[in-house]
Specification:
This protein has about 475 residues and is an all-alpha fold. It has helices spanning about 10-20, 25-50, 55-70, 75-90, 95-100, 100-105, 105-125, 125-135, 140-160, 160-180, 185-200, 210-225, 230-255, 280-295, 295-300, 305-315, 325-330, 335-355, 355-365, 375-390, 395-400, 405-410, 415-425, 435-445, 450-480. The radius of gyration is 23 Å and the shape is globular.
Length: about 475
């Protein structure tokens, strides 16, 4: 290379530059940033009059981060890095809490999943799987969306990590959209990726080992109260309405909000599909081994994150032939890694400062619990958990609400199991994508427009609160829980 020529920008960094505000929108982004900063400062100032300085700073920092992520005024990774800087300089929490995202298995599950996704594309296995899956989805846009949603939901029964499912599924769905002729900015492509991301995340909150908040709830309930939540009872309580019915609602909403024509090309398996290459065969074996180990994690107790990291390391090994030699520099999306680490760290900081527990205690005093009004009590408990999810994230709900569940059961007169299960009503109903790291991961891996994800979240949230939750309470009544 000529010494005078500039170094080529790695694709991972080029991706970061594309996220930066550009052009005529710069002034608008500056105004958004200023507005978020003003609100965050006001919240911090007001709460400092009522709470200790550490909690007030945590409240202001949470509003700043959530506001910046929600408005997309700056790239998501920039806000995450700013969170690390402010949290460490202010001493708001120990470094272990601030940087907890980096040593959580979720972070390394995402990293390993990104490498697996790169390998799926590099070896051509993604196109092969897309062609096979296409033959199962029919020739209508409706059947494609319904099929992707159904397949994503079924995958939640056999693979215990939503982020793991997303990082394996999205490259296949993206290749499938290309195979069917849906361009990068088409509604069809957006709809298919949304069906995969939301379909394998939201209904999966009703399947005990499928999402992190579920497992946190079950683990803390057993540790604190000796209340063992079985797989079948959890499924019976939640899956009929919040799982199966919600998946159907998701299909209808995607079809209405992101309409598109039928596939331009018939989604059929090519008759002359060549045999698998050695690289594809090796990668298939790696994916199969990962899935087997994920399914049996209760036997060997190895976190899915470390399994994904081991698989990613093998794919990065030059002798494997599963990635390019420049993969780590050019193909890894570091923006999504910083973003997810920031979200996890923010939730840990808010929990460590005690802000979440203070919010719960104060909201409980305003809820007007009465022992003779069980439906009101359940609705108020769900509302409190929903607010907790908004100021932390979805895994923060069981982390904050479970330790006070026994006190809440005494206040409301509800069984402890019912009080615990109200958390599921809250963390399964996502208000904005920043609350759910799996959806954030899907936005990064699938290159989803932020506006599309936010709109679908808001509509799903409204339907969940106004329609699905009342139906679920009727189901609970039939089960004798209220």
């Amino acid at each position: 290379m000529n010494e005078q020529s500039p170094l080529p920008l790695p694709r991972s960094l080029a991706g970061l530059s594309r996220l930066a505000p550009q052009g005529d929108g710069q002034a608008g982004n500056v105004l958004k940033s200023a507005g978020v900063l003003a609100v965050a400062g006001a919240v911090g100032l007001v709460t400092s009059l009522l709470l200790p300085a550490q909690m007030a700073l945590a409240a202001g920092l949470a509003v700043f981060c959530i506001g910046m992520w929600a408005t997309a005024a700056v790239p998501e990774y920039w806000t995450a890095l700013m969170f690390f800087l402010i949290a460490m300089l202010s001493g708001i929490a120990p470094a272990q809490a601030v940087f907890s995202g980096f040593y959580s298995s979720t972070f390394w599950l995402l990293f390993g999943g990104i490498i697996l996704g790169v390998s799926i594309r590099y070896t051509g296995l993604g196109k092969r799987m897309a062609a096979v899956l296409a033959g199962m989805l029919g020739t209508r846009y409706f059947t494609v969306i319904a099929g992707v949603t159904g397949f994503s939901l079924v995958l939640a029964f056999v693979m215990p990590s939503s982020i793991g499912r997303i990082v394996l599924l999205l490259p296949i769905v993206v290749a499938l959209a290309d195979h069917m002729g849906y361009g990068k900015e088409s509604n069809g492509r957006t709809g298919m990726i949304l069906a995969a991301a939301f379909g394998t995340c939201l209904p999966a909150f009703t399947i005990l080992p499928a999402n992190a908040p579920n497992m946190i709830l079950a683990g803390m309930a057993e540790t604190l109260y000796g209340a063992r939540i079985s797989y079948w009872s959890y499924l019976t309580i939640h899956f009929p309405v919040l799982g199966l019915l919600k998946a159907g609602v998701l299909v209808v909403l995607i079809l209405r909000m992101f309409p598109d024509g039928d596939p331009q090309r018939q989604p059929e398996v090519p008759a002359d599909l060549p045999g698998m290459s050695p690289a594809e065969t090796r990668l298939t074996m790696v994916l199969g081994l990962c899935l087997a180990l994920w399914l049996t994690d209760t036997l060997h107790h190895i976190s899915p994150g470390w399994i994904a990291l081991a698989a990613g390391l093998y794919c990065l090994w030059p002798g494997s032939g599963l990635t390019s030699k420049k993969c780590i520099n050019e193909d890894v999306n570091y923006a999504s890694l910083f973003f997810v680490a920031g979200i996890i760290g923010l939730g840990t900081v808010l929990s460590s400062t005690g802000l979440g527990e203070v919010v719960v205690e104060n909201l409980s005093g305003l809820a007007g619990f009465q022992a003779d009004r069980p439906f009101w009590n359940v609705a108020m408990l769900t509302g409190i958990s929903t607010l907790v999810a908004m100021i932390t994230n979805l895994p923060g709900v069981p982390a904050i609400m479970t330790p006070v569940a026994e006190n809440l059961a005494t206040l409301t007169g509800l069984p402890l199991t019912t009080v615990l299960m109200t958390q599921v009503l809250a963390f399964s109903n996502v208000f904005l994508p920043y609350q759910a790291p799996p959806l954030i991961t899907a936005m990064q891996l699938g290159d989803l427009p932020t506006g599309a994800v936010v709109r679908l979240c808001l509509v799903m949230f409204a339907i969940g609160a106004l329609v699905l939750m009342p139906l679920d309470l009727l189901w609970w009544y039939a089960l004798g829980m209220v």
